């Protein structure tokens, strides 16, 4: 199923240069805009760089925003298998290819797991980390995590079932349903159409399953607890998957953590309240952002 960018050509898109670089044995696709210190963005489980546009539109006025498609996602190349460690390794290689020694790295949802794993492996490559809507398993009573892991472990390697799963996830009715009942505080069809469909249609079925297993079975706090890198955790006040209080309970160990709750927003706070998220990031980074 193809998805034509031209159907959703929005004014913001003209500000971004979409490029490809050879990293290892595949090409990594990314988009960038703005000037200044580099800020690298890592997308969620059913998205690609496109989903960052509302937030990047604000932050590009002061930073060089680099919106990466992880391997298996968007227009980036595909691998034989996927894991948090593998995705983290490709971020490192990607930064080296772009000759970026150190950057602020931002992740959303699944992307926070990848950023956290990257932080645990290559802390010298990060100035500061920003985790938006990260889900912690410890003490989390949300049964979706256990069910998700069991489901993906069961279907792993079954090609026809994996194809069926992708077919379902690619459908608008599924995107709308998840947005309305899980991800968004106030369902907005236009936001889903603009920023939530392109990525899912350009995602491989293999990465859905492999990363589904990874994120539903990983304790994200083990990667960041005790980290000396400053970390900002941002949540929508009405996030149904995990919230600020749950995060604080899981991060009792020493670490340089800051927490922000964004009112009237859910798990997809980056598209629901991009201005407020940008302001929280800028305050964390110690500057003044004009929006």
Average pLDDT reading = 88
Q: Specify the helix fraction band.
A: 40-55%
Structural class: alpha/beta
- Summarize the biggest pleated sheet: 8 strands, mixed
Strand order of the largest sheet: 1-2-4-3-5-6-7-8
Q: Give the topology string: H per helix, E per strand.
A: EEEHEHEHEHHHHHHHEHEHH
What is the end-to-end distance?
A: 37 Å
Taken together, the total number of domains comes to 1
What is the third-level CATH name, the topology? Rossmann fold
Query: Any idea of the CATH class?
Result: Alpha Beta
CATH architecture classification = 3-Layer(aba) Sandwich
SSE layout and pairing:
Layout: E1 17-23, E2 26-33, E3 38-42, H1 53-59, E4 64-68, H2 84-97, E5 103-108, H3 110-121, E6 126-132, H4 144-155, H5 159-170, H6 172-183, H7 189-195, H8 198-201, H9 205-217, H10 221-224, E7 231-236, H11 244-250, E8 257-262, H12 269-272, H13 274-285
Parallel strand pairs: 3-4, 3-5, 5-6, 6-7, 7-8
Antiparallel strand pairs: 1-2, 2-4
Helix pairs in contact: 1-13, 2-3, 4-9, 5-9
Explain the overall architecture.
The chain has helices at about 55-60, 85-95, 110-120, 145-155, 160-170, 170-185, 190-195, 200, 205-215, 220-225, 245-250, 270, 275-285; strands spanning about 15-25, 25-35, 40, 65-70, 105-110, 125-130, 230-235, 255-260. The longest helix is centred in the first third of the chain and has 14 residues, at about 85-95. With about 290 residues, the chain is α/β, with parallel strands linked by helices. It is globular and about 50 Å long. Helix 1 (about 55-60) crosses helix 13. The chain has a single domain (about 5-285), classed as 3-Layer(aba) Sandwich (Rossmann fold). Residues about 1-5 have low confidence and may be disordered. It has an eight-stranded mixed sheet with strand order 1-2-4-3-5-6-7-8, sandwiched between helices. About 40% of the residues lie in helices and about 15% in strands. The protein starts with 16 loop residues before the first strand and ends in a 6-residue tail after the last helix.
């Amino acid at each position: 199923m193809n998805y034509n960018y031209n159907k959703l050509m929005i004014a913001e898109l003209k500000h971004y240069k979409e490029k490809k670089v050879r990293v290892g044995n595949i090409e990594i696709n990314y988009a960038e805009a703005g000037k200044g210190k580099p800020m690298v963005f890592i997308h969620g489980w059913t998205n690609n760089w496109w989903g960052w546009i509302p937030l990047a539109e604000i932050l590009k006025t002061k930073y060089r925003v680099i919106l990466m498609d992880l391997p298996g996602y968007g227009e980036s190349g595909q691998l034989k298998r996927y894991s948090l460690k593998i995705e983290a390794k490709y971020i490192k290689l990607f930064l080296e290819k772009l000759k970026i020694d150190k950057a602020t790295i931002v992740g959303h949802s699944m992307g926070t797991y990848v950023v956290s794993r990257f932080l645990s492996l290559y802390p010298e490559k990060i100035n500061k980390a920003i985790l938006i809507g990260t889900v912690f398993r410890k003490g989390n009573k949300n049964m979706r995590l256990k069910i998700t892991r069991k489901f993906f472990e069961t279907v792993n390697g079954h090609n026809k079932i994996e194809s069926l799963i992708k077919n379902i996830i690619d459908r608008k009715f599924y995107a709308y349903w998840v947005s309305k009942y899980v991800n968004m505080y106030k369902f907005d069809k236009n936001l889903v159409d603009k920023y939530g469909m392109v990525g899912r249609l350009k995602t491989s079925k293999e990465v859905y399953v492999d990363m589904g297993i990874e994120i539903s079975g990983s304790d994200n706090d083990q990667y960041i607890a005790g980290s000396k890198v400053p970390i900002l955790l941002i949540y929508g006040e009405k996030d149904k998957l995990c919230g600020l209080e749950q995060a604080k309970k899981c991060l009792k160990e020493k670490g340089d953590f800051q927490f922000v709750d964004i009112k009237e927003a859910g798990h997809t706070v980056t598209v629901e309240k991009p201005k407020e998220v940008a302001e929280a990031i800028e305050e964390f980074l110690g500057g003044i952002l004009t929006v």
